[in-house]
């Protein structure tokens, strides 16, 4: 049913890392966003649009708020929700001691279903409307996730982890079974409603060369699907890959060799990328998911965001939580930590660029910038509304914000899930913090 929301809205038409912000930003002080059948049908100043609307169309007004395209989380592990904040280790030990223990429970589909619900509820509370998600090695963990995601009609990307070595036997498949299961999950889920499938080799150390071959093959055989994995996150990991694949020139070259780079391939981290790595990602159209809270929590290192986003060999980059290595579902918190990482690299990440990385920039990294990540007619109506008075300190601080950019930056510094007033999926309000809209609640 046609409906509209009214308030201050902000979106991007272009990339503020490479163009002046005035050429990128779309901002309306008192705007109206009209939605019908899951899509945005009209936007503009409320005073211009309201007279054109049938009086039966409901208009929900959000005051003291900012309306954004729904946030996109480019890399996250739903089965790791239960191990968020696990103490004291870096990547390889953290995987063996916490992750591989938790993921075994997802052989039980009902367990996976309950965990999917917790995860989906949490990301909606954080204002995230699309996530690129690792499930576990169990096909039923993918079925459970997509079944629950479909109930809310979310555009999520997910896939079964492929892993045939260096993991507990309860978490390994084989090159053949991984291939067969991936193929049948693609047939079942890719393009079913809003679901999209990602072929999901965990990372090069947990796949044999045979599995790496078959992974590249199954991805190639299904154009339009995604491929997600991890790369160059941690120094010990990189050294391990060097030993496991001695004939390849680099970690990036391993994935290149097995046909796993290209459009719709997105890799978490790239923390320790060399110039050559950036160049190959740039030339192949492969994307990086920058995962600030995870990189700090696991002591992995400082991603070179400015290098990634600028220059003749810039790469597609979207922001991500990487939870449970990451420590918060809120992309406001990811932006906050991205700012601090950039500071340590001598780069001042301004608020406009930060929000781009989780809206239009993230959509671009996922090759979905014609459907999600912007508030434009024809786009899918996934929308996040932030409350400018969410906490006493935020409200107080914003009294002293002199312009939109300062307001946005204070939201990044002080905001988290408490700042999310409401989240819309395909035009439906599926989360409202104060449960006041009377519309369907998740
Ligand atoms: N590398 C391989 N698997 C993982 C994982 O689950 N989390 C992170 N952060 N890195 C990984
Ligand atoms: Zn990850």
Automatic annotation (TrEMBL):
Note accompanying the cofactor annotation: Binds 1 zinc ion per subunit.
Provide this UniProt record's keywords sorted from A to Z: Hydrolase, Metal-binding, Zinc
Q: Which Pfam families match?
A: Amidohydro_1
Q: Which cofactor does it need?
A: Zn(2+)
CDD domains in the record, alphabetically? Answer: GDEase (cd01303)
Which pathway does this polypeptide act in? Purine metabolism; guanine degradation; xanthine from guanine: step 1/1
Enumerate the Gene Ontology biological process terms: guanine catabolic process
What cellular component GO annotations does this protein have? Answer: cytosol
Is-annotated flag, keyword Zinc?
Answer: yes
**What is the similarity comment for this entry?**
Belongs to the metallo-dependent hydrolases superfamily. ATZ/TRZ family.
Q: Which NCBIfam families does the annotation name?
A: guan_deamin, PRK09228.1
Protein name from the UniProt record: Guanine deaminase
The top of its lineage is: Bacteria, Pseudomonadati, Pseudomonadota, Alphaproteobacteria, Sneathiellales
């Amino acid at each position: 049913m046609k409906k509209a929301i009214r308030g201050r809205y902000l979106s991007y038409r272009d990339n503020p890392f490479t163009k002046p912000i005035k050429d990128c930003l779309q901002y309306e002080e008192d705007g109206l966003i009209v939605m019908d059948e899951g899509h945005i049908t009209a936007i503009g100043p409320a005073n211009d649009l309201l007279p054109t609307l049938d009086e039966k169309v409901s208009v929900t007004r959000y005051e003291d708020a900012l309306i954004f395209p729904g946030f996109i989380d480019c890399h996250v592990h739903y089965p790791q929700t239960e191990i968020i904040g696990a103490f004291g280790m870096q990547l390889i030990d953290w995987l063996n001691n916490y992750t591989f223990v938790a993921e075994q429970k997802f052989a039980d589909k009902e367990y996976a279903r309950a965990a999917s619900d917790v995860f989906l509820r949490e990301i909606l509370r954080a204002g995230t409307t699309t996530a690129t998600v690792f499930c576990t090695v169990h096909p039923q963990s993918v079925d459970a996730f997509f079944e629950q995601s479909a109930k809310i009609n979310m555009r999520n990307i997910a896939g079964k982890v492929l892993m045939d070595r260096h993991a507990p036997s309860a978490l390994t498949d084989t090159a053949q079974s991984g291939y067969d299961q991936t193929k049948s999950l693609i047939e079942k889920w890719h393009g079913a409603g809003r679901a999209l499938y990602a072929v999901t080799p965990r990372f090069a150390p947990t796949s044999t060369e045979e599995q790496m071959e078959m992974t590249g093959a199954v991805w190639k055989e299904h154009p339009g699907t995604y491929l997600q994995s991890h790369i160059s996150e941690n120094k010990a990991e990189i050294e391990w890959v060097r030993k496991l694949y001695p004939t390849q020139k680099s970690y990036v070259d391993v994935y290149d060799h097995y046909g796993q780079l290209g459009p719709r391939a997105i890799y978490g981290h790239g923390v320790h990328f060399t110039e050559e790595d950036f160049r190959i990602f740039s030339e192949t159209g492969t994307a990086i998911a920058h995962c600030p809270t995870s990189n700090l929590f696991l002591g992995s290192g400082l991603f070179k965001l400015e290098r990634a986003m600028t220059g003749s060999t810039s790469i597609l980059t979207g922001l991500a939580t990487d939870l449970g290595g990451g420590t918060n579902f809120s992309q406001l918190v990811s932006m906050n930590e991205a700012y601090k990482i950039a500071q340590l690299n001598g780069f001042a990440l301004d608020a406009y660029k930060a929000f781009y990385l989780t809206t239009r920039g993230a959509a671009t990294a996922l090759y979905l910038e014609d459907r999600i990540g912007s508030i434009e007619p024809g786009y899918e109506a996934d929308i996040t509304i932030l409350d400018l008075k969410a906490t006493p300190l935020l409200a107080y601080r914003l009294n002293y914000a002199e312009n939109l950019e300062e307001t946005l930056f204070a939201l990044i510094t002080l905001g988290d899930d408490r700042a999310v007033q409401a989240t819309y999926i395909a035009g439906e309000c599926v989360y409202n913090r104060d449960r006041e809209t009377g519309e369907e609640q998740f």
